[in-house]
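wait is this the right file?? whatever heres the structure
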């Protein structure tokens, strides 16, 4: 599976990292059809009758996908609730909480576990080597940060579950459960991204002569990522206001051209 990542500066050293959303709707639908929808189906995949009795990462992924599917259906129900109802107010509270999620987390969550290569699109005015290094940095930092927060959120799940005895919706439990899932997905996305964009070709570039083995190694490593400098993106960035960085109109044009989620990109601008 291949994905395109678009990278461009918003203001100064503050950059946007976003995945194009035009390519993989069919791939997501095919993978989502394999997610168990009932506890019985879940047990068939991870229970004693499965090929391995041990708790493997694949089994954890199945459980995470199952929980995420249930949360998405519950969220859709809240979203369709009549205006002014209690469910509608819960949805408004959820939107407020989600607005506080960092854009880098949203980006890392968008990296699927079965990704095999990435096309890195960036303005041609930037150095491609610098772009890839910054992508490596955000992936590495994400793996460290989200691992820490995942364990912290997971530790709070049984504590917040105790609020179920109250005659009210257990909002703390569902929020902590969502944050656990979110950090898990961001952790796995950052690990996969770092694996793809990291290689050992730099040490070969520093040598004056390459051996045949080093050339083959470099070719194999770079098969996971492709740098794609864009003149069009460079021209769009030239509209920026020197004081406030890119305007919202320019960001919308970039998102339309490169098929990015506008609200996610605007989050990068709003967190400056």
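ok assuming it is, sequence goes like this
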């Amino acid at each position: 599976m291949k994905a395109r990542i678009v990278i461009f500066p918003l203001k100064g050293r503050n950059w946007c990292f976003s995945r194009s959303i035009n390519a993989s709707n069919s791939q997501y639908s095919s993978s989502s059809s394999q997610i168990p929808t009932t506890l019985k189906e879940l047990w068939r995949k991870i229970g004693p009758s499965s090929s391995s009795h041990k708790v493997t990462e694949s089994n954890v992924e199945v459980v995470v996908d199952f929980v995420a599917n249930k949360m998405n259906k519950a969220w859709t129900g809240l979203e369709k609730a009549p205006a002014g109802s209690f469910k509608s107010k819960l949805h408004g509270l959820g939107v407020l909480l989600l607005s506080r999620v960092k854009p880098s987390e949203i980006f890392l969550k968008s990296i699927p576990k079965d990704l095999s290569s990435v096309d890195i699109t960036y303005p041609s005015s930037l150095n491609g080597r610098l772009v890839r290094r910054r992508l490596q940095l955000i992936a590495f930092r994400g793996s460290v940060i989200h691992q820490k927060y995942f364990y912290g959120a997971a530790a709070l799940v049984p504590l917040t579950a105790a609020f179920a005895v109250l005659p009210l919706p257990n909002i703390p439990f569902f929020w902590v459960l969502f944050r656990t899932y979110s950090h898990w997905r961001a952790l796995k996305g950052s690990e996969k991204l770092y694996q793809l964009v990291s290689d050992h070709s730099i040490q070969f570039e520093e040598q004056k002569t390459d051996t045949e083995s080093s050339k083959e190694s470099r070719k194999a490593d770079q098969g996971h990522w492709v740098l794609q400098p864009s003149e069009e993106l460079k021209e769009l960035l030239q509209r920026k206001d020197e004081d406030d960085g890119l305007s919202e109109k320019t960001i919308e044009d970039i998102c339309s051209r490169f098929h990015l989620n506008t609200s996610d990109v605007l989050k990068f601008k709003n967190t400056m």
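The CA atoms of residues 143 and 187 lie 5 Å apart. so i think its the right one actually
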